[in-house]
Amino acid sequence: MSSFDVAVIGGGPGGYIAAIRAAQLGMQVACIDEATGADGKPALGGTCTNVGCIPSKALLQSSENYEAAGHHFAEHGVRVKGLELDLAAMLRRKDKVVKGSNDGILYLFKKNKVTFLHGRGSFGSSPSEIRITGTENRTISARHVIIATGSNPRPLPGAAFDEKRILSNTGALAIGDVPKKLAVIGAGVIGLELGSVWRRLGADVTILEALPEFLGMADETIAKEAGKIFARQGLKMEFGVSVAGVSLSKKDVQVEYKDRDGAAKAIDADRLIVSIGRVPNTAGLNAEAVGIQFDRGMIAVDGDCRTGVPNVWAIGDVVRGPMLAHKAEEEGVAVAERIAGQKPHIDFNLVPSVIYTSPEIAWVGKTERQLKAEGIACRAGQFPFSANARARAMGASAGLVKFLAKEATDEILGVHIIGPFASELIAEAVVAMAFRGSSEDIGMICHAHPSLGEAMKDAALAVDQRALNI
Fold this sequence. Notes:
FAD/NAD(P)-binding domain; 24 strands; 13 helices
């Protein structure tokens, strides 16, 4: 039986990063993952790389290019005649992007001398024994085990995924023809992103959401702005709905539901995307047999990602906290360093959230509603991208930046953005908040002109009613 210092079960963002960091720290590491690509070869990277973050961003970019060529290039003086959509080529490009990421992780494993074992990992007769079935059929032992098995899409009761007409994120990324009508249940990140992709490519998209308001997890100002922008783009959305059932005919998917007023309604669509959340992927792990405890379906861990079983750790989507790839990565690094005797720290209040629609939405820290509920007096500063020269030059002037700072000390408590490259701009806010910076600190820093970053500076200055460009 081969023996390792660390065995990581799962090769997604949390797992492969944990394996690499542990190897960098001088440990003998094995990473076990069962995913296989269309070519029959290992497909490291988990849901994020294979059927989540990476392929969705590839399709989002391609669909944005298609929409720009058809609707926005003319205002730049670029006229396109005979525009055609080659969906097959678009999907091939998406797959190529995914394959590049898969291969990149394998390269990193070789570079860092991580032993990759292709198969399904589960606990054996003890917490230190890992059985692998699949391409590899063997048993290994490890002093430490890190569970990083990720999550699966949550199905709608009575409407199992067939990935042909009732789709999870997996099927929604591989539709072979643009549906005339597309229904989406769930107006969260996945629903909005994939709904946006297929709307741009020509589908008539309707999103049904059970919650009474749009983007309840985001700041109210940003949510209202996003609702207006997406409505102008043609996304149809209904809130406060209760889905009564889903049925299939020879041609259509019918969703029966009640609207917020209790009126019975139905929508017929060519396909239905169900995006109502995700559940931890722990089936077949044999975790209970070795004493691992669960809390509401998730593996119970302490603040340092330790389970109740000595030397067994769990990270990412199988534990508490947001199901985000970058959160899993940070936990993976921290666990590897804790095993090595270091004392890393993660501030879960500073994990940014991003929705890669167009415009993008990003935030970190508290919303204004949360601060009011907690009785924390704050001041807000806003700046619209319509007043930012770079955004206007790009033709991407929709949206705004909003800063929230503590009234007594000016410490930044939250930053919320809807606008171009919000996913990149939010990093400045995370850095500032990590060092407990103030809005004045951001306002005093020289930002290049013209740049989108100037919107961050002006919004920070607006906290003290000092914005310079509005």
